[in-house]
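Sequence only, no structure available. Ideas?
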Amino acid sequence: MTHIVDFISDLRFEEIPAKALSSARTCLTDTVGCMLAGIGYRPIQALSRSICDRHPGAFGVLGTDRTTTAAWAAFILTHSATYFDLDDGHRKAQGHPGGVIIPLALLTAAEQKACGKALLTAIVAGYETAVRSALIMRRAGGPRKGSGAWSLTGAVAAAAKLYGLSRSKLKNALGLAEYYAPQAPQDRSLASPSAMKEGMAWAAFSARTIVELASTGFDAMDPFLLDAPECKDLGCNWEINAVYRKEYACCRFSHPVLDGISALMDTHDINPAAITSIRVKSFEKALLLNRTRPENPVAAMYSIPYVVGCKLAKGRVGCQEMGAAMLKDPQILTLADKVTIEEDPALTAVFPEKCLARLEICLADGTCIKSRTLSAKGDPDHPYSETEMYKKFVKLAAPVAGTETDMLYSQLYHGGNESMEKIWRRMISFSLSALA
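Reply:
I predicted one. Tokens follow.
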């Protein structure tokens, strides 16, 4: 069995399979796009300014003219990247790795003046570590832990790789990550949505602090990752290739329902005003998203009825639809009231490996149209093309990056020998200009 510490320490850019590198490039650009979309949201700008005022430091923060500490900068960037729930995920891990790993890795690469190749290598190390950490937690049982509980370990691996920590210090960092990880009760956070977002922003903050502690020689328990069976396939099975990506600004549980609506709208002339009922069949956990009157934008992202209303009324489910102004839209809410969600035990049986749903829309004339049982596009077996991912990046990043959007995408995606410090400094500059 490959030792996790050896895997992280010895991983080299030239030895990573082409498919895993391609996935890492997409993970990086996708997360940065999500991060730029979030930082352009006024409440996040206000939070960023408040944090910077209270915690001054040397790290510039996107969207502000202020600086803060590295740990708080990581918090802000992850909060921005994960806010609209557009960040990537992993089915078996049951959550989101990139929103925590990539902001901290990007920040650390800029700090260490690392090149794009080093950043991509650290990202791969981070994803491989994070997913296995999640699988260890799932095997241990008990209440489901949210993304912050295990993506923290991946962020530590990525940052430690960029720092060049010794093997003994890296082992301590992983042990600290496992012990200090937030509980992040996942089902509770789905039932009661908030800005906490499964503890992911705090995980990024903690990961940075943990790497700093480990670098001083602070020791820790041996991590479970050292001898867990989940690590036996390191270097053979690349979990970063199993990442899914998202089009809609809402929980992944909603995506197969929304794709079902798209399929029905492509083949039927559906007048939203003529809809009398919308019946959704899905897996048991999807019932946690059965709220029709979300009280805030985050609750809207975790509401299947609300996003169904958005898709039928507006034809889209993006960042704009999650804004506070939309939560009172009568057309959306009237449609949301017509949605019922029921469990299909057969769909529950294949969760989390598969996230499936189907729906039936009934009209005033008595017609009822049904979708097939679908998984959402963006899963590894039905991925978005590189062109589709580029278009998503442009849509999310352009309001902040402006005319430099294409250049930024190219520099991040192709990840060569250029210093990430230079790219990061340009990102701070253009975002300030765009948000002025």
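The chain has 18 helices and nine strands.
Hope that gets you unstuck.
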